[in-house]
Amino acid sequence: MFEREDHFIGGRWVSARGSEFLDVVSPSTEEVVGRVPVATTDEVDAAVAAARAAFDDGPWPRLSVAERAEHLRRFVAAVEARREPALRLQIDEMGMTHKFAVENFDGLRPSLERYVADAEKIAFAEVREGVVGKVLVLREPVGVVAGVTPWNSPIAVEVSKIFPALLMGCPIVVKPAPESPLSAYLLGEAAIEAGLPEGVLSIVNGGVPVGAHLVDHPGIDHVTFTGSTGGGHVIAQTCAARFRGVTLELGGKSAAVVLPGTDMTEYVPSLVGGSLRNSGQICVSTNRVIVHEDDRDRVVQQLVDHISAMKLGDPHEPDTDFGPLAAKRQLEKVEQFVASGRAQGAKVVLGGVRPADRPTGWYFEPTVFVDVDNGMEIAQEEIFGPVLSVITYSDEDEAIAIANDSKYGLGGAVFATDAEEGIRVATRIVTGTVQVNGGPPAGGGGPFAGRKHSGMGAERAVEGLGAFLELKSVTLPPGYEPAAV
Predict the structure, then answer these.
(1) 180-190 pLDDT tens trace
(2) Could you say which of 43, 249, 365, 382 is catalytic?
(3) How far is Cα 51 from Cα 57, in angstroms, rounded to an integer?
(4) Which of 158, 283, 365, 382 is catalytic?
(5) Which fold has domain 255-446?
(6) 249 is a catalytic site residue
(7) What is the pLDDT of residues 155-214, one digit of tens each?
(8) Alpha helix (H) ranges present in 266-358?
(9) For the structural domain made of 2-250+457-472, what CATH number should be given?
(10) Gyration radius (Cα) of the chain, Å
(11) Where are the domains of the chain?
């Protein structure tokens, strides 16, 4: 069992002062696999104070992007050196499959290099012609950042906060989800091994009270949060009261639109992956599949055949496709949604139950609903489980109306025989990112920004990096000719 009695504060391990601990339960065995301390308010204060000192008095904000990038490359190398424990701990703590853990872990270095490439495009200082004379426009680090992360993809989401904040010169205090705090200890170890300067990274454990204290701390300048829409609403209110910047990446109920006559043979793996990867526990999952009424039976059969051939089982086994849900409450929530779908008239054509051969663990069979009306609860609410709803349309306008009839606007997909037609339809969907005929959200290079109840601001790309910068205009003296900036 993984046991720790310390926190990573200011770049070093500090013995926990409190008496409260988190017991981390394996979703696949229902056994306790880890125990770590909950941070006290004094420990959160110490983490923020260390970050504050690193920003106000330390070298980090004054390093060049290239220098900070080299520090982060050493950090990633140290994380990569912990590959096997990183995979094992993430599987233990939240039940993600080995396949998904590998996919996420192998994406760490490419993710950093993309951030670095985008950072190199930013003009941190530029001279502009004003109405009278010239003005020097500066982009400066915003300050100390609080990063609050979810349980569904621990290391990947944690570094998605750490990379951009540190690259832009902002020390960060990270609070992992209480369900999955174990693997974050490896990030602390890697930070020490890589020689990250004192104070630039701290990691504190805890639930809502710890997160609330961190987010409302007067020493924080910007908050970046990935999680539920409800949690984001509370954080947005807190930040508004302090006139503090906030980036929110929240829930979704994304649609995958299959255009009439599209041969889905090639695209079914992408459609299923986009809908059910990580047992549907991904905010950007496209779990509303919108299909032309003439194509429904064909596409549904392709989905059922493909999903039926996939393996549900022990997440530690390399060939497992579907592991358990991350928490018992999540399993119960999925069961309630499935019952609601049936009660409202939708029909289950695959799954819909706990697997009989998995009495232990929070498993639920991947589920496909048909005869779904977009007004049903299963089509409107984020389930965060392996449940896919097939909805039919008669013409393009109706398909777009269905896709846009949601309080969310995070992801989306279009599958089309003609790529140009697919792109045209994608422009009509009110959402932050749309994949045409497969590929990762935002193409791995564009901004990732939710609309409506799916978030505020953007992550990734130049636009996401901008969240960690503040603008300053310096009016230059009349007749002054600045040197090259």
Answers:
(1) 999 999 999 99
(2) 249
(3) 10
(4) 283
(5) Aldehyde Dehydrogenase; Chain A, domain 2 (3.40.309)
(6) yes
(7) 999 999 999 999 999 999 999 999 999 999 999 999 999 999 999 999 999 999 999 999
(8) 268-276, 296-308, 328-343
(9) 3.40.605.10
(10) 23
(11) 2-250+457-472, 255-446
